[in-house]
Write a structure and sequence with these properties.
- With 509 residues, this protein is an alpha+beta fold.
- Among the domains are: 26-220, 2-Layer Sandwich (Beta-Lactamase); 328-349 and 360-498, 2-Layer Sandwich (Heat Shock Protein 90).
- The protein contains ten helices and 14 strands.
- Strands 4-3-7-6-5 form a five-stranded antiparallel beta sheet.
- The two termini are 43 Å apart.
Length: 509
């Protein structure tokens, strides 16, 4: 046994080099991030401008209001001072006749006593700091709250009569104006933010529009259209990306074509020695009676391996035709139920007497199938059924049920609904295996795929190409193949072929 081999055959050597990955973005998408950046920028700028505007307007309004009220207070204070100079002046009557502005209240300190036009705005309503400042001989003002309402308190000393005059002015109207201004600025900031987000969305759309072409080209390449190329136009910034993308697809196309040619060439080259070996084994079979028991056993082993090798070469040739795009259909109108029955009968094992044994399961047909005509390539269709049966026999303990049905089923009167565009024939093959995990079902149609039961597949008689050929044959007929869990356990392979197939290959789904 050589290095790198196991009792079951060569052990595949896997590269320890991890694939290089380039992260394009994190979190939100690129367009969403550009939109969010514009929105946040517009919000920050509009909020800053709104704040500056509000506080500037507030200070301006307060200064204007305070200046006007101070002039009125000084005028009233002069009247009060002149009145207190009169002999027998009554301070309590005087405070009510000082002529305050509408909405203002007056307080007078004279002869050590306090007089007010309202009980709520007496000495107790004046801050001690303002009292001390004015009684000390310095005019002053302060914004205070009286009964939950903002008030501007202004005090003027009257040293000539040893008194001090105070007046309160309501700021409710000014506060209402400022609230209206704040609401207007907030609404403007919101509108600006929304406009910024819309502008960012539009700008990001225009900036990323060229990448949509690259995305479409990448999707086309992933779908097998390797001749797809990207045109950068006059955009200098995209020319390097377009050039790199086109070079990548060109290299990929060249490599795949070279591998397809290599597979085809190798398969063709193997046909000649296989033909010679087959003829040689045939000659030996003709002289089987002359061979010793040990030689006959060796001949049986050689014949079996030669048969499997020939089957693999044939599969590789078929695959190479698909890769080269040279696979062609020879369509005939057939009875799908009868064709499946023939394919099932042909898959039965051959006994020592050279006769095929009877299959242990019947082919069930659903309503509307008998008498229906289906346009298919008979050779490929029979190969699809044979490969599914062989797969169930080798890897899933055998077939339990084969069903041919029409989808959707015919109407209540037994007549098909010809108005349904998705009318198709279904061929269902159920097995008695343990089932196939959902994450492996699509991979089973890949070439040489080895899943969780790779050890079992490695020791089997299969070539690893059967299900991939099923997928290719079905795709050529515009159909689909998938795997589901069987109701009683195991797996069910479902092949769907359209009734209205016109010979144009469809997509495998």
């Amino acid at each position: 046994m050589g290095p790198g081999e196991s009792p079951d055959g060569p052990v595949p050597v896997r590269s320890s080099r991890r694939p290089r990955r380039t992260r394009l973005s994190e979190g939100l998408g690129l367009r969403a991030r550009v939109t969010a950046t514009f929105a946040i920028g517009a919000f920050a700028l509009s909020t800053l401008m709104a704040g500056i505007t509000y506080f500037t307007a507030r200070q301006t309004y307060l200064n204007e209001r305070q200046g006007a009220d101070q002039r009125q207070v000084f005028a009233n204070a002069l009247l009060v001072q002149n009145a207190l100079r009169s002999p027998g002046a009554d301070a309590e009557q005087l405070i009510g006749s000082a002529g305050p502005l509408p909405g203002s209240l007056s307080v007078l300190h004279s002869g050590g006593h306090w007089y007010a036009t309202s009980i709520s705005t007496g000495q107790s309503a004046l801050p001690e700091s303002l009292q001390g400042l004015v009684l000390g001989g310095t005019p002053g003002s302060q914004i205070i709250s009286v009964g939950g309402s903002p008030q501007l308190a202004i005090g003027v000393p009257l040293p000539a009569v040893r008194a001090a005059y105070f007046e309160f002015f309501s700021l409710d109207e000014l506060e209402g104006t400022l609230r209206t201004l704040a609401f207007t600025l907030a609404a403007a900031a919101l509108v600006t933010t929304i406009a910024g987000a819309a502008l960012g969305r539009w700008a990001s759309g225009r900036a990323l529009r060229p990448l949509a072409g690259v995305t479409e080209a990448a999707v086309a390449v992933a779908g097998g259209e390797l001749d797809t190329r990207v045109e950068a136009g006059d955009d200098v910034d995209l020319q390097e990306l377009a050039s790199a993308f086109n070079q990548m697809t060109a290299n990929l196309q060249d490599r795949i074509e070279r591998e397809a040619r290599f597979t085809s060439d190798v398969s063709h080259e193997l046909r000649s020695p296989l033909t010679t070996l087959t003829a040689t084994v045939g000659v030996l079979e003709g002289h089987r009676s002359e061979l010793s028991p040990r030689a006959r056993s060796a001949l049986d082993l050689l014949d079996g391996d030669l048969h499997r090798f020939t089957r693999m070469v044939d599969d590789l040739l078929e695959i190479s035709r698909f890769d080269a795009g040279s696979a062609e259909l020879s369509l005939d109108e057939v009875d799908p139920g009868e064709l499946v029955r023939r394919a099932v009968a042909a898959s039965a094992p051959v006994g020592p007497d050279g006769r095929r044994s009877t299959v242990a399961f019947p082919v069930e047909t659903g309503p509307g199938v008998e008498g229906l005509r289906l346009r298919v390539d008979k050779r490929r269709f029979e190969r699809v059924v044979a490969n599914l049966l062989e797969n169930a026999t080798l890897y899933a303990g055998g077939v339990t049920r084969v069903v041919v049905e029409r989808h959707p089923p015919p109407g209540p009167a037994g007549e098909p609904d010809h108005g349904t565009p998705a009318e198709c024939i279904r061929v269902v093959v159920e097995d008695r295996g343990p089932g196939i995990p959902a994450n492996e079902r699509d991979h089973l149609f890949e070439r040489f795929y080895r899943g969780s039961r790779s050890g079992q597949r490695a020791s089997s008689e299969g070539t690893g190409l059967g299900l991939s050929l099923v997928a290719e044959h079905v795709r050529l007929h515009g159909g689909a193949v998938r795997i589901e869990d069987a109701p009683g356990g195991g797996s069910r392979f479902i092949v769907e072929l359209p009734l209205s197939f016109d010979g144009v290959p469809g997509d495998l789904t």
